[in-house]
Amino acid sequence: MPVPADTIRHVPALVSGPARIRPAEAAARVVMLLLVAALTVTATGQPAQLGWIAALAVAAAPSFVARGHALLAPLGRAAEVVVTCLAAGWIAAAAQVADRVDAGFGAEAVLPYLAVPLLTAALRRRPMEGIGLLGLTAVTMAAGGALAGPGEPLGQPGYLAACAQWLVLGAIITFAAETMRQLLQPPDPTPQPYAEATRLLTQLRSVARSLPGATLDPGGISEHLLEELRAVAPGHRAAVLSASGGGRLVVLAQTGAERVDWETTLDADSGIADAWATQNPQTASRSQARSHQGGEVSSLVVPLVAGVRTIGLVILETDEPGAYPSSVVFAVTEVTGPASLRLEAALLFDDVRSLATNEERQRLAREIHDGVAQELVMVGYGIDNAQATLPEGAEETAEELRALRAEVTRVITELRLSLFELRSEVDRNGGLAPAIAEYARTLGTSAGLRVHFTFDESTARLPAATEAELLRIAQEAITNARKHAGASNLWVTCTVDPPYAQIEVSDDGKGFADTRPDGRYGLTIMAERAERIRGRLEITPRHPSGTTVAVVLGTPPRRDSVRDGVSAQEGE
């Protein structure tokens, strides 16, 4: 349902600054008045005709004292046009009587002043006023030529030619003023892309430091928005969704007694798709979930719009009919309006952070590959050459070289696995589970581990930044099991039902008997990553041996899953 007219907030128009006399503008008008005064005396030889110039000065007074006034300034410009055009007829007649200028061309003495009011209106970006002044010019030119008296200038070809010439020039001034304004305005220096990026990032850093904790977290902002909406609108279920690319949405936060499998495609016949396309709130008498038990339902979908771009949606649903009249819609939009800007800032911050993190990981991978890895390979070749040139009987030295060569090979293997980890990312078309499975298979093969998978992944997706953090946590858990546990089997479970997710890595190794500092540092890193996405890290012993590392995000659904889990063993 479109937004009622009374929910559209009025944005006040820009107003001019305080009325002040601008020296350049005043000087231009004075010079023009002096010019037409001199031309008038030259054309007529009658100082009495300067009365028209005095009348022009009076008409121009509002341009000096009330140039910013919404009514007086346009009336002043209209008065200037009327006086100028009337004066043109009388001065043309006087010039012809005095035999100074023939055939009505005396109008050329005063008509140049028309450029002043027309150009002023055009430079103030008032095209409709300019068109009105042109029409007023044509009418008063005819009136001035008809009422001028002796000589009847309106019937003189020279008068008509002069009037037509200045009407054409006035039209050019009116309709080409924007181009003229841009030419007269000094161009703004265009900053270089990296300089602009530096400026924006510096501003973002300053703002982020001044805000309270977690304010730039999309999930936290979404949960706070749902809390605010709970006070103004009824609802048994609610959610905040944002775009994830590929025409799909991701659930940032949701509330309700039960978890809901919301519709997340934008090409479906739903209030979600309509609200996204129209940028207007939509009400419906059906649920916006993929699977609903039926019964009376009222749903309200409100787009979150920042500027001209839709960045997300808020869905409210209740099991009562007609629960969202226009008054409730208005109250909801009053809350979602300011929240849209906060959420957009958080999403942009997430994007910048993800781009920076990925770029740094790729840089480190390149440096390791081109630096330490290549140097270790050369060390290995040197050991091989030393073994080949050993004299007979140096068995002890040969054994030490073989042990050293094995250690170099192990380090190179570890480096290659580290490169693989640094380059691993979640494919936006594949999902989180395939990315974890690829990493587990690669490390399991290198360590001779038998890897068992259990996946239960919804078609809905988590935010990209959240998926990236979950992948890194799973990688660290798998790496720790491979390096330190001495396990034979590895069990990897991935359950994703946005905004809920649980990644679990179990092994049948020796547990936490090993207290190596690097292992403990890995656990610290995993805990920090989990905290960053508002998840929790759980480490428990596995019976009869081994360890289970799990990261849990959100609360599990309270309904039966409609998806079948997939269980497979490595190599099958």
TrEMBL record:
Keyword Transferase on entry: yes
Keyword Kinase on entry: yes
Keywords annotated in UniProt: Kinase, Transferase, Two-component regulatory system
Taxonomy, superkingdom: Bacteria
Protein known as: Histidine kinase/HSP90-like ATPase domain-containing protein
Species this protein is from: Actinoplanes couchii
Histidine kinase/HSP90-like ATPase domain ranges (all copies): 465-557
CDD domains reported for this sequence: HATPase_UhpB-NarQ-NarX-like
A Pfam family assignment: HisKA_3
